[in-house]
Amino acid sequence: MSEHIATGVTADAELDCKGLLCPLPVYRTGQALGRLETGQVLRVECTDPGSLADFPALARQRGDTLLSAAEEDGVQVFYLRKGAA
Amino acid sequence: MGVASFITEMTRGRTRAARLGTDTRRRRYDDVRELIASPRDPTPLVRLNHVAPGLDAYLKLEGMNPFGSVKDRTARYLLEGMRERGELDGRELVEATSGNTGIALAALAALEGIRLTVTIPSGVPREKLVLLKLLGATVMPTPDDLCPVDNPRDGAIALARAIADSPAHRGRYAMPNQYANPDNVRAHYETTGPEIWQQTEGRVRTFVAGYGTCGTITGVARFLKERDPSIRVVAVEPQRGHRLPGLKNLEEAKPPEILDRSVIDDVVRVEDGPAYAMVRRLFREEALMVGPSTGAIAHAISGLDPESAGLVVGISPDSGLKYASYYASLVEDEGGTA
After folding, report:
1. Do residues B118 and B138 lie in contact, with contact meaning Cβ atoms separated by under 8 Å?
2. Would you name the residues of B annotated as active-site residues?
């Protein structure tokens, strides 16, 4: 599993949403977070430009924490920690 | 068949019977698709004898179509158009639907060996989800507020569009897109509209249908107004945040591209309460077991001015059989043993 360099957070699961248009990354991420336990971390890779705005709002809406959002070589990488259900 | 086995068959008296073939007069069909209504074999018009006093009003019972709704016509035309344009070749289908279009598409796709994914808005009754799955469709329930930013109440449509257009899927999915596809309008211009004209012997004066994908209202109204421009077309629009599957409030949902407002004369707003009260009346007073959207449409009909309305035809988009879970609340205050 990937470790986030700046925060040292290790992802419990990863999701590849590269090449998927909004709102598919949000939909898939919601499903993937649903499969995790509270406190676990999901790493998501996206290429849809809308994701940079969508993911902070998604985390707020669901009660999860967006640990980091970064862009690496045209790919947006998000780390989300699942909140209490 | 070899000679020996033919003789064996003969001696058992079991030569294969000649195929009967379709005979619509006897209501015998070789293929369930032939049951989808058309001017040759229309869905029935039934008069409202109790809930619209003073009016000469009929409901067109689209629930009598083989897959249970007005959307059977739409689905047939959508698939035929896509096939003619070569859009189906080896592809899967994805469509946003409140259930009825999905059920009809799933039935037709199953017969043709085409895979179908449907994105379903929240609030669609459980019965429809079960039917879709039984027909082999992949079902994706979608919250209306799926897009946390820029949030129209159309999450299911946006999701279906994204599945069809995402580069990662490499063109694997084709989207009929009933909200924008002119074949949806054509289905009603070529079948529902002519049926109403024939069945009323050209005497229809007022036509009432709901705002949904707007294929029915646009196609029927266009046909009828070509025959007689003075025919009045009334659109029924639900309240914001309504619980009437298949209908749309066009202030909170994006107006479908196929809607032609120039053929609509009046819009009647109907709230959930009166629509469901009318559903109960239609069951008990007319013995018409209809879906919730028919309640809204019949309620709008009952408020028409008997002096000016003339002969009224309203669309009953589907039957009530798929809504038992919705309707439970209508009867739970009545006690009993159920």
Report:
1. yes
2. 71, 293
Question: Does residue B191 share a domain with residue B297?
Answer: yes
Our CA-based measurement puts residue B92 at a distance from the nearest CA of chain A, in whole angstroms, of 17
Top residue of A16, A18, A22, A31 to mutate, by most chain B CBs within 10 Å, is A22
- Per-residue pLDDT reduced to its tens digit, B302-319: 999 999 999 999 999 999
Which of A21, A53, A61 comes nearest B162 by C-beta?
A21
**Domain check: are B106 and B193 in the same one?**
no
Q: What CATH number should be reported for the domain holding residue A49? A: 3.30.110.40
Report which of B89, B96, B312 is spatially closest to residue B184, judged by C-alpha positions: B96
Q: B149 and A54: CB-CB below 8 Å?
A: yes
* A60 in any annotated domain: yes
Q: By residue range, what is the domain housing residue B138?
A: 71-174
Assembly ipTM? 0.87
Region B171-175 average pLDDT: 96
Task: Summarize pLDDT for B63-98 with one digit per residue, the tens.
Answer: 999 999 999 999 999 999 999 999 999 999 999 987
CB B158 to CB A57 under 8 A? no
B216 and B268 housed in the same domain: yes
**Nearest-CA neighbor of B178 among B257, B247, B111, B238?**
B257
Residue B329's pLDDT is 84
- The total number of structural domains in chain A stands at 1
Amino acid B152: pLDDT:
55
In a domain, A2, yes or no: no
Q: What is the pLDDT of residues B95-143, one digit of tens each?
A: 998 789 999 999 999 999 999 999 998 778 889 999 999 999 999 998 7
Tokens for B181, please give them. Answer: 């596809």
Helices A24-34 & A51-62, crossing angle to 10 degrees? 30
Q: CA–CA separation, B126 vs B98, rounded Å? A: 11
- For B296, the 3-state DSSP assignment is helix
Instruction: For residue A43, give its domain range.
Output: 13-81
Does residue B22 fall inside a structural domain? no
A67, part of any domain: yes
Regarding whether B152 and B61 lie in a shared domain, the answer is no
